Amino acid sequence: MAEGSQENSPSAYAAAGVDVAAGERAVDLMKQHVARTRRPEQVSDPSGFAGLFQPDLSRYRTPVLATSTDGVGTKVLLAQAMGRHDTVGIDLVGMVVDDLVVSGAEPLFLTDYIACGSVVPERVAEIVSGIAEGCRQAGCALLGGETAEHPGAMEPEEYDLSAAGTGIVDRDRVLGPHRVRAGDAVIAMSSSGPHSNGYSLVRRILDDLGMDLDTYAPELGGPVGEAMLTPTRIYAPDCLALVDEVEVHAFSHVTGGGLASNLARCLPEDLHARLDRGTWTPGPVFSFLAQRGGISPEDMEATFNMGVGMVALVAAHDADRAVRTLNERGVPAWLAGSVASGAGEVRLEGTHA
Fold first, then answer.
1. Where in this chain does the record put each PurM-like N-terminal domain (predicted)?
2. What is the pTM of this model?
3. All domains of the chain, ordered by start, with CATH?
């Protein structure tokens, strides 16, 4: 047999560290999870190499497609350390679909990419179960994906995640700074924790403390690792419902960089926002990190969402209705501040309740 043919034979590939059979078993195990996310617009692809989707464009006058891509970051390292792989997929979906909805777009479908040192079918299926659950919460289809085995580049137990999502919105309904007006109300929506941002600092704090992830922390009401793996809250369906109920001008997805820097992105240059910290109390995970890690308030606010994962800027007359709508949907929300004339910046005033 020629040397080239030998190199490409299944046995040679397996010897190089790639288990094709494990990959096929992983696909079989994940099918049940992917099926839960199916939407009626999906079209079967006979080739099996792509995902097809036929959106109902009759609902739109001038449809615009929106796209976003993201990952989970170093939060996956905590999941790997704990052997808990069914939640980071929810984080992955949240990072993508909640960026899409900022423009007012409805998330339609998502494709994922899982890179790992070694394909362990049960672990891959566990990861995909979380991605599927995130898609279910977001109302979008998990249309396809790729699982890649990278022996030599990654250790056998290592993996990383990324995803890309596509949404749709009418061009004349695109939200953003161009709609924001002086007097708009700033409606804050509660986060479930740090979501998927700041985990390099989280890990450094835990390492410096020499704290095992299974350590029970009274202030967290459970093991440290479990608290840090709390999945990202997915806001997309609630934001879309809010758009249908009130006059929404803009959303801000609070991710890396914290509340002030992300909210500033949805303000025009001639307006600023004032928020009163006294209108909310960040969850206990934030005080745990600040106190145990000796992190200054300034660094905390520049790194973490501090209890606010999404912000809506709505017409002042709709403020109460916006809060009521979100609360009725199970999203803790409150009036946190307002927009006024002045340079495009965000001012956080007062102290947390």
1. 65-169
2. 0.92
3. 17-42+60-170 (3.30.1330.10), 177-349 (3.90.650.10)
